[in-house]
Specification:
The complex is a heterotrimer of chains A (172), B (293) and C (758).
Chain A (H helix, E strand, L loop, with lengths): L9 E7 L2 E7 L5 H8 L18 E4 L2 E4 L12 E3 L12 H8 L9 H14 L5 H8 L10 H23 L2
Parallel strand pairs in A: 1-5
Antiparallel strand pairs in A: 1-2, 3-4, 3-5
Helix pairs in contact in A: 2-5
Chain B lengths: L4 E4 L3 H10 L4 E4 L5 H6 L7 E4 L9 E4 L3 E5 L4 H5 L2 H6 L1 H9 L3 H6 L2 H7 L6 H7 L3 E6 L2 E6 L4 E3 L2 E2 L6 E7 L6 E8 L10 E9 L6 E9 L6 E2 L1 H7 L6 H14 L10 H27 L1
Parallel strand pairs in B: 1-3, 2-3
Antiparallel strand pairs in B: 4-5, 5-10, 6-7, 6-10, 8-9, 11-12, 12-13, 13-14
Chain C lengths: L27 H6 L14 E7 L5 E7 L1 H5 L3 E6 L10 H14 L4 E2 L5 E7 L2 H9 L2 E6 L6 H5 L13 E2 L2 E2 L6 E9 L2 H7 L2 E9 L11 E6 L5 E5 L4 H12 L6 E5 L15 H10 L5 E4 L2 H7 L6 E9 L5 E13 L6 H8 L8 E9 L13 H19 L3 H8 L18 H10 L1 H4 L7 E10 L4 E9 L5 E5 L7 H13 L6 E5 L16 H28 L6 E4 L2 E4 L5 E3 H6 L8 E9 L5 E11 L6 E11 L6 H20 L30 E6 L20 H14 L5 E2 L3 H12 L1
Parallel strand pairs in C: 1-14, 7-9, 10-29, 12-13, 16-17, 20-21, 27-28
Antiparallel strand pairs in C: 1-5, 2-4, 2-6, 3-5, 7-8, 9-17, 10-15, 11-12, 11-14, 15-16, 18-26, 19-20, 19-25, 22-23, 23-24, 26-27
The chains are: A alpha+beta (172), B alpha+beta (293), C alpha+beta (758).
Bound molecules: FE2/S2 (inorganic) cluster (2 copies).
One FE2/S2 (inorganic) cluster (FES) binds next to loops of chain A.
């Protein structure tokens, strides 16, 4: 147990985008602040800082969370995936490709959070219907697009992912 | 954000000891989806956050036909909503949990946290009331139990004593002929706080027409979530028909003491109470009938 | 009556190679990988974090500010108050304007709204900065507040600005007042027009303060060097506008300031003017030139940056038996916020802009109130005005039993008709859009259920041209870098590069567009007024022509002929009458042989922005017991001129409609009696989520703007205008109540329904 109360900084070990990471932070610093200001991972955006916009969405041990509502100290021994870690070494994740192709990006500020929410959805259900897509994206505000092209992009990515999967299954 | 220290604990005893010793300046951190906002905005103060998510006892989620559902206070809404047994047997609770915030919030927020935050508009509490939940509390003086309807005493205030924590919620197994539902009214379709919430549960007699027992509870129309006993008393022994349901809804409206705030007008809330109470009861009855088949 | 559309000659569309296609936008890759650098992503060594102390009062005298404790806090490097801002001594209206801007940056003697900036600090961490704010002691003497226009116009209203006098139709008043100005459009004989009417409908409306609601809060990083040079990185729609604002507030020459616009997370008019930029610069100066980074939290965005005006609007329209408008009158009273300057200039021309009205009067009043200074929001001032006029038109149709599109066909403006301000209209596509709406399956589809209704509303928006600049360099591999002055708020790097590629006859991939900082390109107006693809696109076209002329000279050198013997078509230079040909890329590779590298620049002030017209159809379902409105289907028809990138145009339409839906149903500032903003967060200031917005179907009608080389009209703003009116009309048809207030929240719909039944 922690014997010195009100310690200034705490050491945290975690895995971020597949890499082991160690950092010092104050207990009051959120994961979002540490990602952006200490680790230089500015892909997660700060919109409302209160859990209402989803711009800061990341995956924590595979669960979609708002990084502004997680303390950095809480990620000890956990895995974090941010937008910077989504693409494979070569090329892009199908969600990223479809966001481009379908014109789902306008200003792009909501985009990282949207893509990660969509990823969490497709991990949970690879074949979501439109209403399920909309329900999963409801925590991500977008002021630019009217959402239509975003929903399309997620549908298209889901299709491609399941085709990829089918292709893998066919292989001996 | 104000400055605080953070400690992660592994047992209820450890948590209780820390909370009891910190002169009211220690707070429990669970999902953090309410607490971190409140700390940032200065609505609550803390010098120490005690993270209880890692206590195994607080993460129990299991059902048995004798004792019913044990729901650890730290179980996330997401986990509860994905639990097949809970979905089948406690539809009112699962419905309420599925309405608490976005997917992001649900992955963090716990039902226990929603209860302890003691918002008059908390979605889970009316649902827990109609499911007859009992809270298991552990504090420096030992353990006690409290019915959920007694848990909140004012906006943001609960019966928890210093050093006491909510360990788990216990919901009795649904008897035959049981059905429940929760719904709320919000201007947007998601990402909103209830203007009015209503939970209802009924037990139908074998004839599927007579209500043997009923409970109705409301959110956001009183300083604490409100159990409308008069509505249940009225329905007990009566036919499950439109007229009686409407009368029960009227009783709910009479019991409500809504105020005007940024989310709604008092008169609007009164209107909504009647509509939502009726709709919640209709859902509960419908589910009770489906369950009997 | 003749068939429509009859008054514009349909020309065969020119065959374009690049224009009209849907390439992936060039900035997209960085945005889907998280690498795009938005304002708050700028990282500079040794950065300090700034924060702003804001007024908890709506109206109060500032008696004293004690910053000593904050300054003494370890980690705090600078504290500033209005005392650190230079006094502005210029006399007259312009001087007043500058003073207002300075006072809006930091309040001097009085705070005029909840959230008004009072002091700012810079510290080594954002947490220390906010602790420092808490230790600043401010003594306020609270004053009564005037929160809405009717309160502010009363005889005994508290006066916000001691020196303000009404400018009424050019005459200056001599009494202290909150009414900053009164303007009027007038023609014909109103009385006679109403006397001729068989039906007159007269209604009053009220609309709430709403915010652009971009998801990215305002931010700025600044370095103020000891030699006086200031560098500012920020998310803005108007880099040059910010430069000028900072120069005005800090009273330094523009040449000392370089504004580097970053990627911008939405603006919609809200990021045209400076809030944090002068503060960041000043804090940097005071802390010895260290970079200072500032970002608002969302409560600050809502409480202290420009929302659009709340309004009170009165509309009276008369029609004859056939439904022909005989007279139309409107009074618009707009809440300017703390300082004059509400978007009456947008609302007054828009309110009857879609109609031919011979007897017309439109009065506008700009009134200061204790709310944040209003700013622009997408077609500023128009959506609330058109909500008023288009619901009156709909009521007229209902009373006459007339088809709503037929009514517009009969009364809608055509080429040559005069706008409300008297200027004749050029070639427009209103009637083509009306016809497209009439032919769309949505217009005749069955509603399919009870409590459902279909609403229609139309809109006119003038669009803006103005000053733009760009520079292009030709590289040896045949690529062209394009450095342009317009901030990209909607994919304009791509729509500009497309116009250049079209002009030069080269593939789009060969063009590398970049938004320039204010030292790298000549003055360019901000990305507002639906002007970028039009005006900067025109610049880019001229730039292409200039490059072709310069390249022709180089080809002439190679071919030992005169430039007039070189011709250019479809990306290839050729010798007139000869065999010699060089593709753009081949010639670019040989530039060295011709003496020097090659670049060109163009600046111009574009006139002739083509007005836009839109016709929207919406189906709603109303829950009669709760008053909740669900939007089932939405079709937005719009004359977009030549669509350079139809995908981007669709995005503008869908996004604008979604914003209009928010304005219609959910959004609005809620103040308590003391003037404190109660919903300064994104939970209770409700932007629509994806569950609140249906699939919006854009229908693009292309009536090229004859004044633009590629026929471009502005498209970005008009989509926000019709939704509130269209939805109100749909609600009226669904449940029989006409709402006269925005937002049409469930509580209001329910109350109206219950009142009617009572
Ligand atoms: S910044 Fe985290 S939800 Fe908005
Ligand atoms: S693209 Fe701008 S907020 Fe979504």
């Amino acid at each position: 147990m922690n014997s010195k109360p009100y310690a200034k900084k705490v050491q945290v070990q975690a895995q971020i985008n597949g890499e082991p990471v160690e950092f010092l932070c104050e207990p009051r610093q959120t994961l979002l602040e540490v990602l952006r200001e200490s680790l230089g991972l500015t892909g997660a955006k700060e919109g409302c800082s209160n859990g209402n916009c989803g711009a800061c969405s990341v995956l924590l041990d595979g669960v979609l969370v708002n990084a502004c509502l997680v303390l950095a100290v809480e990620i000890q021994d956990k895995r974090v995936l941010t937008i910077e870690g989504l693409a494979p070494r070569e090329g892009l994740h199908p969600l990223q490709e479809e966001f481009l192709r379908q014109g789902a990006v306008q200003c792009g500020f909501c985009t990282p959070g949207m893509i990660l929410s969509a990823k969490a959805l497709l991990d949970h259900n690879p074949h979501p219907g439109e209403s399920e897509i909309r329900r999963w994206l409801a925590g991500n505000l977008c002021r630019c697009t009217g959402y239509e092209k975003i929903v399309r992009a997620v549908q298209a990515a889901a299709e491609r992912l399941s085709q990829q999967e089918a292709a893998v299954e066919v292989k001996p | 954000m104000q400055e605080f220290d953070y400690v992660r604990v592994q047992s209820v005893q450890e948590a209780v000891a820390l909370l009891a010793g910190e002169e009211n300046r220690a707070r429990i951190l669970c999902g953090g989806t309410d607490l971190l906002v409140q700390l940032r905005e200065g609505q609550r103060q803390a010098r120490l956050l005690v993270d209880i998510k890692t206590i195994p006892e607080l993460n129990q989620l299991h059902y048995d036909p004798v004792n019913g559902l044990t729901l650890g206070a730290a179980v996330s809404c997401l986990r509860l909503c994905q639990d097949e047994t809970a979905r089948q047997l406690y539809p009112g609770l699962v419905e309420a949990a599925s309405l608490i915030g976005s997917v992001q919030i649900q992955g963090r927020a716990s039902v226990g946290g929603n209860v302890c935050n003691a918002s008059p508009a908390a979605d889970s509490i009316p649902a827990l009331i109609v499911h007859r939940a009992v809270c298991r509390l552990v504090g420096p003086g030992g353990e006690r139990q409290a019915a959920i309807e007694q848990f909140c005493c004012a906006p943001g205030k609960t019966i928890l004593q210093r050093g006491e924590i909510l360990v788990s919620l216990h919901l009795p197994p649904p008897p035959p002929g049981f059905g429940a539902g929760y719904l709320r009214f919000t201007p947007r379709n998601e990402m909103d706080i209830a203007v009015v919430g209503a939970g209802a549960a009924v037990i139908l007699a074998e004839d599927q027409q007579t209500i043997r027992w009923a409970r109705l509870a409301l959110g956001a129309v009183a300083p604490t979530p409100l159990w409308v006993e008069a509505a249940g008393d009225f329905l007990a022994g009566r036919a499950a028909d439109a007229e009686n349901v409407q009368q029960a809804a009227r009783l709910a409206r009479q019991a409500a003491r809504p105020i005007r705030d940024v989310r709604g007008e008092a008169a609007q809330r009164s209107q909504l109470v009647e509509v939502l109470a009726r709709r919640a009861l209709e859902t509960a009855i419908q589910r009770a009938r489906a369950a009997v088949h | 009556m003749s068939a429509d559309p009859q008054d514009s000659v349909q020309e065969a569309a020119p065959a374009y190679r690049v224009i009209g296609t849907r390439p992936i936008r060039q900035d997209g890759l960085d945005k889907v990988t998280g690498r795009a650098v938005f304002g708050a992503d700028v990282r500079l060594p040794e950065t300090l974090y700034g924060a702003v102390l804001r007024s908890p009062h709506a109206h109060a005298r500032l008696l004293s500010i004690d910053t000593r404790q904050a300054e003494a806090l370890p980690g705090v490097k600078a504290v500033v108050t209005a005392a650190d801002l230079p006094a502005i001594t210029l006399e007259g209206d312009w001087g007043d304007n500058l003073r207002y801007q300075s006072q809006n940056t930091l309040a001097a003697d009085k705070v005029l709204y909840y959230g008004h900036a009072v002091a700012a600090v810079a510290a080594v961490s954002p947490h220390i900065a906010s602790e420092a704010l808490r230790s600043i002691q401010v003594v306020y003497d609270p004053l009564p507040a005037a929160l809405d226009v009717r309160q502010a116009m009363r005889e005994d209203a508290p006066i916000l600005l001691d020196t303000l006098r009404t400018d009424s139709l050019g005459q200056r008043g001599n009494q202290p007042t909150n009414v900053a100005s009164h303007a009027r459009f007038e023609r014909g004989d109103l009385e006679q027009g109403f006397a001729q009417a068989a039906l007159v409908v007269e209604r009053e409306f009220e609309t709430a303060t709403v915010h652009p609601g971009y998801i990215e809060p305002q931010n700025a990083s600044a370095i103020y060097q000891s030699n006086g040079q200031v560098t500012i990185w920020c998310s803005t729609q108007a880099a040059f506008g910010i430069r000028d604002d900072v120069a005005n507030v800090l009273q330094i020459p523009v040449g000392q300031i370089c504004v580097i616009p970053t990627e911008i997370g939405g603006g919609f008019g809200g990021k045209n003017s400076a809030y944090l930029e002068p503060l960041a610069a000043l804090l940097s100066k005071k802390s010895g030139g260290r970079p200072v980074k500032m970002a608002m939290n969302y409560s600050e965005v809502l409480a202290a940056t420009g929302p659009t005006s709340a309004s009170y609007i009165h509309v009276k329209v008369g029609v004859d038996r056939d439904g022909l408008i005989t007279a139309a009158q409107a009074t618009l009273v707009y809440a300017a916020g703390a300082y004059p300057g509400s978007p009456l200039w947008g609302g007054m021309p828009a309110i009857f802009g879609a109609y031919r009205v011979d007897n017309l009067r439109v009065d506008g009043y700009d009134v200061v109130v204790n709310r944040p200074r209003s700013g622009s929001l997408r077609a500023p001032g128009a959506a609330n005005a058109v909500f008023a006029s288009e619901t009156v038109m709909d009521e007229i149709c209902e009373k006459l039993g007339m088809d709503v599109l037929e009514f517009r066909r009969l009364n809608g403006v055509r080429q040559g008709d005069r706008r409300s301000d008297g200027v004749p209209l050029p070639r427009i596509g209103f009637h083509e859009a009306l016809q497209a709406a009439r032919q769309h399956p949505h217009y005749t589809a069955p509603l399919g259920g009870p409590h459902r209704g279909r609403g229609v509303a139309c809109a006119y928006w003038g669009n803006h041209g103005g000053k733009s600049s760009a520079t292009a360099s030709v590289h040896a591999d045949g690529s062209v870098s394009l450095l342009e002055g317009s901030v990209d708020v909607s994919g304009t790097r791509t729509s500009l590069a497309m116009q250049l590629a079209e002009t030069l006859g080269i593939p789009l991939e060969a063009i590398h567009p970049r938004v320039a900082d204010t030292n790298a390109v000549a003055y360019t107006e901000g990305s507002y007024g639906s002007r970028t693809t039009f005006a900067t696109g025109w610049v880019v076209y001229e730039l292409g022509q200039k490059l072709i002329a310069l390249l022709s000279e180089r080809a002439a050198i190679l071919w030992e002929t005169s430039p007039d013997q070189v011709q250019f078509a479809e990306g290839v230079f050729s010798h007139k009458g000869g065999e010699k040909r060089l593709a753009f890329k081949e010639l670019a590779a040989r530039l060295d042989e011709t003496g020097s590298p090659l670049m060109a620049s163009v600046s111009l002030a574009a006139g002739g922005a083509g007005p836009a017209f839109a016709v929207h159809l919406v189906d709603v379902e109303v829950d009669p017991e709760t008053g909740k409105v669900q939007i089932l289907r939405y079709t937005a028809v719009q004359d977009a001129g030549q669509a350079i990138h139809p995908g981007l145009v669709e995005g503008q339409i869908q996004g604008g409609v979604a914003q209009g839906i928010g304005w219609a149903l959910h959004e609005g500032y809620v103040y308590d009696e003391a003037g404190r903003l109660l919903n300064a967060n994104l939970l209770d200031y409700r932007l629509p989520t994806c569950l609140d917005v249906p699939a919006i179907e854009p229908v693009i009608v292309e009536m090229p703007n004859p004044r633009h080389p590629y026929g471009v009209r502005g498209v970005g703003e008009i989509p926000i205008i019709p939704p509130p009116a269209a939805i109100a009309n749909a609600i009226a048809r669904a449940v029989g109540v006409r709402l006269t207030q925005l937002p049409m929240s469930p509580g209001r719909v329910l109350a109206a329904r219950l009142a009617r039944d009572a």
